[in-house]
TrEMBL record:
Keywords annotated in UniProt: Membrane, Transmembrane, Transmembrane helix
The protein, known as: Uncharacterized protein DUF2029
Protein's organism: Kribbella antiqua
Transmembrane stretches, start-end: 12-32, 38-55, 62-84, 191-210, 231-256, 262-285, 297-319, 339-366, 373-394
GO CC annotations, alphabetized: plasma membrane
Length: 465
C-alpha cells in the first residue's frame, strides 16, 4: 500500500470509529439522554474542523487576542446557570466556608450540627441553622459496601453531595476553596468558584498559546482547549477543580522544557495537591540518573509537605472520604472498574492486569525520558491511565485535553469525549466499555499512522538524490 493510500484511508478509518462511538452513545442510552451526548460529540467534531481550517492560514498579528476573547466568551453561558454536570461545586463552597470558620472539612461532615451556623438557603434549602440533624462527632467511614453506600447517599435537605461523609479533596485544593470563599459572599453561592474556574480556563488557554508559539507551532491550536465544550461545561459551569490541576500541569511542563527542575517539581506537587491523578505523571519526569531525579523528589516532597499542617490539625482524619471513595470506585476491594477490561475479564483479573499494565507504562515512560518530548510522554501516560481505569467522572480528563494540545496529539481528545458519553450510561459496563474501547482504537489507529508517516519521511530524507 502506498503512502498516499494510507493517508487517504486514515481519515476514513478514524471517521468510521467516531461514527461508531456516536452511534453507540445514541443507541445504547435512554431517550432522554442521547441528545446531549450527540450535541457534545457534534460540537467537539465541529471544533476540530474549525481548528483545522483556521490553522491552514497564516496567523495575524492579533491572533492571540482573538483566541483569548472567544475563549472567554465560551465561558459566559456557564456563568449564568447553576452547575450542570455535578454538584461538586457546592462541596467546594462548603469546604472553603468551614476552613474560614476555623474548623476542618476533614474532621466535620456537612450535616454536623456543630457547624449549623454555617448553613444558608443556597447550600441547605431544607435545613436552617436552628434545625438539628442528629449528626455530631468525628466522621467515620465504614468498610462494609452496604454501609458505605448508605452513609455516602445524598440528602434532599442539602445540595452538597455525600453530606454524611468528610471531604475528599487534598490540601492545595482546600487552599483554593478557602481563598475563593473569602472573596465570595454567601449569597453568591457557587458563582465565585465558577468565575474563578472560568478565569483559570482562559489563563490556561493563554499559557498554551504562548508556549506553542515559543515552540514554533501555531498558537491557534490552543483553541482545542479554550473553545472546547468540555472545558466550558467543567469550568464556567461546574467549576471543577480539575481546571486548576490542568493549569499547574501545563505550567510544570513549560518550566521542564526550560530546565528548571525544582520549579517543575513544586508545580507538579501542587497539581497533585489539587487532584491526586497528576502523581501518575512522575515517571515522565524520572530517569535513572541523579540529576534527573530532582523533579520527582521535589514533587513528592511538596505534595507531602502540603498535607503536614492538616495532619498536625486532624491526624489520620486527613484521609477524609478517600478510602471510601476508592472502595466505591473499585480500586481498594480488588474489583477494578476498568470498563475496557471488564468486557473480557472478571473483577479479580482486571485488578491484576491493570496493575501490571500500569507498571509497564511507568517503566516505558522512564526509559523514554529524553528520547521524546516530555509533553508527549505525559499525554500518553495520563491518557493510558484513564483508559485503564476508566474513572466514573468525565471531568477527570480535563488535564488530558491540555496535554493533548501541548503535545500535538489531538487523537487523545477521543478519551475525554468517550468519558462524557459513558457518563450518561452510568451503571452499564458494556456501554461504557464499548465507548472507551472505541476511543482507544482511535488513539491507536492515529498513533500508528503517525509512526508510519514519520518512518516514511525519515527514509525519504536518508535516500540519495
Amino acid at each position: 500500500m502506498s503512502v498516499a493510500s494510507r493517508g487517504q484511508g486514515l481519515p476514513l478509518a478514524v471517521g468510521g470509529l467516531i461514527a461508531l462511538m456516536g452511534s453507540t452513545a445514541v443507541i445504547t442510552t435512554a431517550a432522554a439522554s442521547w441528545w446531549p451526548n450527540l450535541t457534545l460529540l457534534a460540537a467537539t467534531l465541529l471544533l476540530g474542523g474549525i481548528t483545522w481550517l483556521i490553522t491552514r492560514h497564516r496567523p495575524g498579528p492579533r491572533v492571540l487576542l482573538g483566541v483569548l476573547l472567544f475563549a472567554g466568551a465560551c465561558q459566559l453561558p456557564g456563568l449564568t446557570l447553576a452547575p450542570i454536570t455535578s454538584t461538586d461545586a457546592y462541596r467546594y463552597v462548603w469546604d472553603g466556608r468551614v476552613q474560614l470558620s476555623g474548623s476542618s472539612p476533614y474532621s466535620h461532615v456537612p450535616l454536623d450540627d456543630s457547624l449549623a451556623r454555617l448553613r444558608d438557603p443556597i447550600l441547605f434549602p431544607g435545613l436552617s441553622p436552628e434545625d438539628r440533624t442528629g449528626v455530631t462527632g468525628p466522621p467515620r467511614v465504614p468498610h462494609d459496601a452496604a454501609a458505605l453506600a448508605a452513609v455516602s447517599a445524598d440528602d434532599p435537605r442539602t445540595r452538597i453531595n455525600r453530606p454524611r461523609v468528610p471531604t475528599i479533596y487534598p490540601p492545595v485544593a482546600q487552599a483554593y476553596f478557602t481563598v475563593v470563599a473569602f472573596l465570595t459572599p454567601w449569597s453568591a453561592g457557587t458563582f465565585g468558584l465558577q468565575l474563578a474556574a472560568a478565569a483559570l480556563a482562559v489563563g490556561v488557554t493563554a499559557l498554551l498559546a504562548t508556549e506553542l508559539r515559543r515552540r514554533d507551532r501555531d498558537p491557534r491550536w490552543a483553541v482545542l482547549w479554550g473553545w472546547s465544550p468540555m472545558v466550558a461545561l467543567e469550568a464556567g459551569s461546574a467549576a471543577h477543580v480539575d481546571v486548576l490541576a490542568a493549569g499547574l500541569i501545563v505550567a510544570a511542563l513549560v518550566t521542564a522544557v526550560r530546565r528548571r527542575p525544582v520549579v517543575t517539581g513544586l508545580l507538579l506537587g501542587a497539581a497533585a495537591g489539587v487532584k491526586l491523578l497528576p502523581l501518575l505523571l512522575l515517571p515522565a519526569f524520572t530517569a535513572l540518573r541523579r540529576q534527573s531525579l530532582t523533579t520527582p523528589i521535589v514533587a513528592v516532597g511538596a505534595f507531602v509537605a502540603s498535607y503536614l499542617p492538616q495532619v498536625l490539625a486532624v491526624g489520620t482524619l486527613v484521609l477524609g472520604f478517600l478510602p471510601g471513595y476508592l472502595g466505591q470506585e473499585g480500586f481498594s476491594d480488588g474489583s477494578s472498574r476498568s470498563a475496557i477490561l471488564a468486557l473480557v475479564l472478571p473483577p479479580a483479573a482486571r485488578q491484576i492486569v491493570t496493575g501490571v499494565l500500569a507498571i509497564a507504562l511507568a517503566v516505558l515512560a522512564i526509559r523514554l525520558h529524553g528520547r521524546q518530548p516530555i509533553a508527549v510522554t505525559c499525554c500518553w501516560l495520563y491518557g493510558a491511565a484513564l483508559l485503564l481505569t476508566t474513572p466514573t467522572y468525565p471531568w477527570y480528563g480535563l488535564p488530558l485535553i491540555a496535554l493533548a494540545v501541548l503535545a500535538g496529539r489531538a487523537e487523545w481528545l477521543a478519551v475525554p469525549v468517550a468519558s462524557y458519553l459513558a457518563y450518561a450510561s452510568f451503571g452499564h459496563e458494556l456501554r461504557q466499555g464499548l465507548l472507551h474501547l472505541t476511543a482507544a482504537l482511535i488513539v491507536l489507529t492515529t498513533t500508528h499512522a503517525r509512526s508510519m508517516a514519520a518512518a516514511v519521511t525519515s527514509a525519504g530524507e536518508a535516500a540519495p538524490v
